[in-house]
Amino acid sequence: MIEDKNPQRTPLSELGEFKLIEHLTERFEITQKSTIKSIGDDAAVLDFKKNQVVLTTDMLVEGVHFDLSYVPLKHLGYKAIMVNLSDVCAMNATPTQVTVSIAVSNRFPLEALEELYAGIQHAAKIYNIDVVGGDTTSSTSGLIISVTAVGEVESESVVYRDGAKPNDLLVVTGDLGGAYMGLQVLEREKEVFKVNPNNQPDLSMYTYIVERQLKPEARKDIVALLKDLKVKPTSMIDISDGLSSEILHLCKHSKVGCDLYENKIPLDPQVISTCEEFNIDSTTIALNGGEDYELLMTISQDDFPKIKGNPNLTVIGYMTEESKGAHLVTRAETKIPIIAKGWKSFNEND
Ligand code: ADP
Ligand code: MG
To answer: Buried-most residue among 14, 29, 64, 216 (CB within 10 A)?
Structure first.
């Protein structure tokens, strides 16, 4: 399904580690004022003046987090950066630098790493961040990518998971369930392809959701928007595992309950139609799908006029006393307890 655009295969052993690092990183440009020293020394040097620094890291392992039979390496590089930038944004911080470490087996030629780094470079350019270091090592099987991201935030603006209060509004950005349904489509096409390798899939009906899976975007724009609107959320988290598990994180850390309204959950029409096609309930997908990398936040009711009508922000419920628990209020107006059912790397059969 992935066409081999570059049939050349240069073994990594032909370059050696230093040449390889040089080759992969030579086109990275430095744009952040806070980057004092980048790739090339024993460590990078950053200067954030009075701002606070947020630091986060995430690892992606072949066979656990991604499947190279339908994820192009360029997209993988992009996504590895995005999942980290999303965590920085969830602190209400602006991402500024990343380091990228890779462990790679000799199954991968140089051209494969070039693709991976093209995706990383593209992400760095679009999001205006500097790649300031990393590590390169060999692995006996498969590919592992570990990215560490740095961001900056004025100390009074940082937002944690633990600040939500009863009566705060629960707000989500964008729409949910697309990434999961995109994965369903890609997995189905992979099975079709196994049976008939000449059968090129037609994904034109699924462009939005496949893109949500392969090319997620971190909501850096929302950090800027909140600043413009002069809204500081009382708590915030990014949606990596699915709405229900993230709501439960906010509830647990903030010691509050929650009423989430099923009819308020934002869904793209393509998610709805694909759910119908696959015969899956779209609410279940929005609650448990994961990988949408939208932001989930709580805001004080006093701030509601500032966000009202903004197409990026949807109020989906409100927080309650902890003793009330966390519930989904269904379209039929029954209350169902919210349970965590996100993606777990450790028990795939869940
Ligand atoms: P050291 O031996 O001190 O760990 P390396 O030879 O591993 O140094 O790395 C040399 C420089 O290249 C360092 O600045 C390091 O951060 C950077 N670097 C190494 N691997 C990568 C990579 N995969 N991506 C980006 N930068 C890298
Ligand atoms: Mg090193």
So the answer is: 216
Can you name the residues that pair with 133 across neighbouring β-strands? 99
For the record, the structure tokens of 41 come out as 């020394």
pLDDT in tens, 12-34: 989 888 999 999 999 999 999 99
Distance 57 CA to ligand 2 centre (A): 17
Q: What's the pLDDT score for residue 322?
A: 98
User: H-helix or E-strand containing 149?
Assistant: strand 143-153
Residues 253-288 have pLDDT tens digits of 999 999 999 999 999 999 999 999 999 999 999 999
Residue 237 DSSP SS3? strand
Q: Atom 24, ligand 1: which residue's CA is nearest? A: 134
The residues spanned by each domain of the chain are 12-153, 169-337
Domain 169-337, what fold? Phosphoribosyl-aminoimidazole Synthetase; Chain A, domain 2 (3.90.650)
Given a contact cutoff of 8 angstroms between Cβ atoms, the answer to whether 66 and 60 are in contact is yes
Contact 82, 115 (CB under 8 A): no
User: What torsion do the CA atoms of 179, 95, 38, 81 make, to the nearest 10 degrees?
Assistant: 0
Expressed in angstroms and rounded, the spacing between residue 338 Cα and the centre of ligand 1 is: 44
What CATH number is given for 12-153 in this structure? 3.30.1330.10
